[in-house]
Structure formats: structure tokens, C-alpha cells
Amino acid sequence: MLDVTLVPCLSDNYAYVLRDPATGECAVVDPSEAEPVLAALSALGARPTMVLNTHHHYDHVGGNEALCEAFPGLRVIAHASDQGRVPGQTGAVQDGDRVMLGGTALRVLHVPGHTLGAVTYASDDAAFTGDTLFLGGCGRLFEGDAAMMYASLRRIAETLDPATRIFCGHEYTANNLRFAAALEPGNGALLDAVADAERRRAAGEPTVPKTLGDERRVNPFLRCDEPALAAAVGGSHDPVAVFAAVRERRNNW
Ligand code: ZN
Ligand code: FE
């Protein structure tokens, strides 16, 4: 199993330190800022060989340059279309590429919507979804449209095993799930998830990760073909229209 350490950054971001169990090779996903990431690496005794960025936004790449200075030769990987927008980028990946971290293959899924160059990195048992799929929600449509984002979320949901642990870019879970519960008050798994997320936050614990299978039961953006959810936003039978309506309500919630 890929070893993953959460690194809280800024107000509500997560960076992650990944360690391949077979070789000990380490990588950092989305270093929002350098200091907490450097502290986490030091505590782990880890020297990363690469940074994996999910997209170009500052709160996901802000620590790139300082990490490159601290670890000469560090590779910085992001989508080909983000070249020039990701500080220190050395490697350009596209959909279907595999990035090797020691003995762990990380598959690249190009998932445009939040940004046009958004990618998810997925091993057999963990996926790093950035601001595309959040626990209980999804990212805003800054560069793409609803059809694009919906297709990207479907791609994640249909490609990855339900047991895959989802590690997302922000701790938005409790608020996302409260919004979802307002739309689907009859979904028992969702009500349980709200209570669990609220308990964890009250205890100062992260809600991340949850499995993809768990998310499919509670995340409204993965449930746009559910009649109860469609009915709550006007009853369209077109899942993209349902997605767009749910996204619009979430923007104004
Ligand atoms: Zn973002
Ligand atoms: Fe973000």
C-alpha cells in the first residue's frame, strides 16, 4: 500500500508526502507552501525525488521553488498544458502516462474542468485529485465547463477501484456534506458521513481520506444520475444538467 502522509498547509490545503513501500522513494504532491512540507519531510527523514502538481493554482504549487532549492535535481511534474504556469516544472505528463515512484506506478488521468490542465495521479490504492474531486464535493469551474467537469468526475469514478483512497486538495468535507444533505435528506449514508466529518473536525482530525466507494454513496457530483438528487434540482434526466444545477447551487450556498 502506498504510504501517504498528510501535510496541512495554508488555511485548508493538504500537501501529501508519498513513500513507495518497496524502495522508500518519496514524492510530494501539491506543496502549497514550503515550510510545513519541509518540516514533514524532515520528521520522516525523507528526501523527495519529485513533486507532483495536480494543477497550476498558487495554493498547490507555492512551495515548488523552495523545494527545488532544498533538493537539487528534484523533478517537478504537471500536465503538459501547464508548462510555464507551474514553477520549476521539469516534466510534462499527459493522459494515460505512468509516473514511477520506485515500485509504485502512478497513472495520470487528465481531468479538465477546475482548470484545463488538471490531472489526478492514481496508484492501485490511492488517488490525488487536487481540486477536481473533493470529499463530498468538487472544484469550481474556473477554466472548464459543466460537461467537461462531469466527464472528468465520471472518468475518476469509473476508472478507479472503489477501494481507492481519495486524497484531495482541501479540507472542505464537512461543509460539502452539509450542502449535499440539504439536497438528499433521505440518504442515510450521507447523514452518517456528515456526522462523521463534523466529529472529526471538532476533534481537530482530517476527514481525508475516504474511499471512492464511500464517495459514490454521498458525493452529489458523483450522483447526478440519482432520481432523488435530480428531483431536488428540478428533475432533469440529463446528468450534465443535474451536475450544472448542483454546482450552481453549491456556488451560491
Ligand atoms: Zn485550484
Ligand atoms: Fe486549491
Termini separation comes to 38 Å
Unreliable spans: none
The set of bound ligands, ions and cofactors reads:
zinc ion, fe (iii) ion
Strand order of the largest sheet: 1-2-3-4-5-6
Binned, the helix content reads 25-40%
How is the biggest beta sheet arranged? 6 strands, mixed
C-alpha Rg, in Å?
18 Å
Task: Describe the 3D structure.
The protein is of the alpha/beta class and 253 residues long. It has a domain of 79 residues. It has 9 helices and 14 strands. The strands form 3 sheets. A 6-stranded mixed β-sheet has the order 1-2-3-4-5-6, with helices on one face. The model has no long low-confidence stretch (mean pLDDT 98). Fe (iii) ion binds next to helix 2.
